[in-house]
Amino acid sequence: MRKKLTIALVAHDHRKADMVDWVIYNSDFLAEHHLVCTGTTGKLVREALNREGVFPEITCMNSGPMGGDAEIAAMVVRKEIDMAVFLIDDLNAQPHEADIMMLLRQCRIHNVPIACNRYSADLMITSTLWDDETYKPMEPLYRKFDRNKPE
Ligand SMILES: O=C(CO)COP(=O)(O)O
Known about the structure:
The chain is an alpha/beta fold. It is built from 6 helices and 5 strands; from the N terminus they run βααβαβαβαβα. Strand 4 (about 85), helix 5 (about 95-110) and strand 5 form a beta-alpha-beta unit. The model has no long low-confidence stretch (mean pLDDT about 95).
């Protein structure tokens, strides 16, 4: 892959081991890209990749409950994120449910690919579309809310 992507990586506590497994499995791929993570996920991802001898650029935001999801959602809105992997704990309630919903919602609105399980994440990072210069992602579905576009 030629283009350096900015990839958001976020995992809830019960999914952090899965995220660590996934980043190790894909360490060669991730080495070439910029990773943006919520606080604790980022720390674990960095440690795991460094142990593998891989040192990608990693930006750690706040921890999720302290606003990390919201910070990443804001980056999505500013078109600073190319794709996201968000391993959600679907079996336990989170105190920052509203922020989680916001991150998911902004990815949907801004047409940012987001994988919420490992299979989707693997399909996403192996897509040939990343290198297809003729491929243009669809415009946002909510065009009428895009202030830069005439009706
Ligand atoms: O809570 C999270 C995502 O909603 C993850 O936050 P941490 O990576 O800081 O644990």
